[in-house]
Each structure stands twice: as C-alpha cells, then as structure tokens.
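fwd from M.: "can u put these together and see what the complex looks like"

so here's what she sent:
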Amino acid sequence: MRQISALFRKELIESWRNFKSMAFLIVFIIIGVLSPFTALIMPDILSMVMEDSGIKADIPESTALDSYTQFFSNMNQMGLAIFVIIFGSILTHEFSRNTLVNLVTKGLKRTNVIVVKSLFLVFLWTLGYVISALVTYVYTLYYWDESANHLVLSFAMTWMYGLFVISLIMLASTFFTTSFIAVLSSVLALVIVMLMASIHPDIAEYLPQYLIGSNIGLLAGEIESGDVLWSSVITGAATLVFFMLAILRFKKVPMN
Amino acid sequence: MNMDIQEYLPFLIPLFLLQLVLMVTALIMIIRQQRFRYFNRIIWIVIVIILNIIGPILYFVLERR
C-alpha cells in the first residue's frame, strides 16, 4: 500500500511538472465549451453559406441533441486521440530512460508499477471526462433546457471506452517496452480492425466500438438501453483481461 | 451578418482564456529550456503561437518527457 501511494504521488508530481496533466485537462475543458458553442452557431453559419450561394431553405434551430452530438463527435475522436497521444508514453518512457531498474531492484513490486500507472490514467481520464461532460451539460441546460433520454448512460459509455483504451495502452506498452510509436500504432490498428469488423451488422453490436457509436442513438431514443448491454459487458471483460495480461507480461519483461 | 458577439461571449471568453493559458505556459517553458530534442527555440515558439491547442500539445508531448 505504501509503495502504491508513493508511486501514485510520483506520477502526479511528474505530470504536474511537465504540465501534461494540466494541458490534458485544459484541452478537455475546451472540448466541453466548444461543443455547445458549435451547435449554437451552426444554424447561423449554414444560413450565411446558403445566402452566399443563393440557396433558400429553412434551417431548423439547433437543439440540445445537436449540442450532445457535437460533444460526442469531438470527444470520441479528438478527445480520445489527444488522451492517447499525451499519456500513451506513460510506461514506455520509463523503459527508454531506464528509470525503473533502480526501483525494481530495491524491492518495488513489478505488479505495483503497472497497477499505479493504470490507476493514474483512470483517475486522470475520469477527472477530465467528468469535467468536460459537466461543462457541456451545464451549457446545454442553460441554452436549451431540454431533457434527453438516458443521458448518464450515454456519457458513461464513452467513459467506459476510455477505460478500454487505457488497458490497451498498458498491454501494448508491456509488449513494445521502449517504443511509444509502436504503442500508438497498435491502439490505432485495433480501432481500425474493430471499425472494419463493425461493418458486419451481426458482430457490430458486440464490439466495444459500438459503445462510442451509439451515444447519439441512445439520446435520441433510437436505441434502447438494453441494446448496448452486450457491448458493455464485452468491453468490461476485455478491459479486465487486458489489465491481467499486462500485469502477467510485465512480470517477465527484461529490464537492463 | 446578424451574428451577435455579445450573445457568444460566455463561450468565447473561457475558450480564449484556456488557449491563452496553454500558449503562455508552453512559451515560458520554451524560453527556460536550454537544450531541445527537435528543432530549436525559434521554431518551437512559432509552432506554439501559430497552431492553436495542437502546438502547445505537440511541445509538451515531444519535448517534455
């Protein structure tokens, strides 16, 4: 327990000193503010473009759903990508600088290293995501004051997908030890494979990718909450398995 | 153009401030940093100022390890 809290503090201080955690939080707040803003000005921009090109059409006023649509499209693409780019090197840079060797030979349990790194990422992801979601939620409530179906579940799905990505980062890091680029591309590769697999409608519902693809459908009421049950269960199971594999693999990783 | 800037201030002010914090922090760090892994000081300053959000993020990821 003492090892865990000490290591956790080390991670906090490190990411504070190199400003990564603050930069990450700021970007997520920007996403939170930008999404309702984009939804709000979209009708104005569209009408201006249409006026210029001489098309006449009635553009409907934006709704709360538009605001959430913007949020999820920003978060699921840009937000997750920025998270992986900033924190994907959390384990690999320890390997490339050989900073773990001293600690491990002095009796630091290897399991603790990976547990703390994962906990730290989960902590930051949760913090950033909750703040970002709250900012969007408050703005949307203030400007539109409409309710949406399954709001909490819809937000939770992207959060869960984030956990899945974190476990993936950990597993890839233990395999590719020193190469951050390899970690980055393996995460990217799996996402692309899942995207390709989800073309097939029978498999699509069971993939983690389904979670971040159906936020809007759930809010709009096109999808029932029962429909995402299987992909949530599978994502949760995959996350746990990946964490287990990462811990097992990390015990065998040579350090020199 | 019937855009009303006043109406959008609750969005624009936080967006502007957040970007400013990112940029200023990155600039201060660049000025205080002695050795650079990629490029040099001038190029980093230009990158951070020209590319909003992405510039400072790139700097933090590439130079601050």
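replying to her w this: Residues 36-65 of chain B form one domain.
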